[in-house]
Amino acid sequence: MKIQKLSQEWLKGIACVTMLIDHLGYIAFPQVLWMRMVGRLAFPIYCFLLTEGMVHTHSRPVYMLRLLLTGILSEIAFDLAFYRGFTWEKQSVMVTLLIGAVMLWGMELAKKLLKKPLSMLENKNRYLGILAEAFVMGLVFFPFHYIIGRFQSDYGWKGIFLIAMFAITRRMPLKNLIRAACMIWLARVSSSLVNFAGLVIRFQLPAVLALVPIALYSGKKLTRNRALQWGFQLFYPVHLLILWLLFRL
To answer: Distances in Å between the alpha carbon of 88 and those of 75, 158, 238?
Structure first.
């Protein structure tokens, strides 16, 4: 039986819906744990889409400028929705994604600087070349791990780790198994235990299920409609503003 692949729009839609359920649960129904569990799928999908976007974009500066503009709008909506007013104590997840995008650009520059030795290694042995490329990209991760520590943005170093992981494993064989192992480890070291449906699990463990739609991603768009693309881009700040208004009402 042929498995139906998911377009970029479907993947973005899954991320938006699961994020909406998560934030609705956090703001309006904090006692309903399943909503938070469903929401764990959203962020890994956004991290994956960021790595794909940086690979396929025609202009990385323009791509990051869009992230910056969305981030500015999101900061206002984030503060209102979660803190009922403006604060510098915490930043939205858009800060994490923006720093992650700069990190990905740094990884690309590092690969270009070492293009000749990396190509020579890959010509001798494909897997050795992939491992060497992963090592170079991994080195770029560490200074950004330090930079994200200067902020108090959502997911922090865990978000930077996920973004780096999706980028580094992009060409690896058995990449889905490697990603699953990394995400299970991340859930174990960075989240608390919760009682969900009679099971005691790590709060972030359901995030591993995001690898299912990611594995089904076709790498294609259904449409080039600009309005739809901006709709997905602005969904984060707009839905938070709507939730804030509903909360006030």
So the answer is: 10, 20, 20
CA angle at 239 for the pair 214 and 241, rounded to the nearest 5°: 150
- CA-CA-CA-CA torsion sign (63, 65, 66, 71): positive
Question: How confident is the model over 110-153, as pLDDT tens digits?
Answer: 999 999 999 999 898 989 999 999 999 999 999 998 889 888 89
Q: Which residue has 């992939």 as its token pair?
A: 130
Q: What is the pLDDT of residue 163?
A: 97
Buried b (16+ CB within 10 A) or exposed e, 26-62: beeeeeeeebbbbbbbbbbbbbbbbbbbbeeeeebee
pLDDT at 107 over 90: yes
Q: Classify residue 208 as exposed, middle or buried by CB count within 10 Å of its CB (0-12, 13-18, 19+).
A: buried
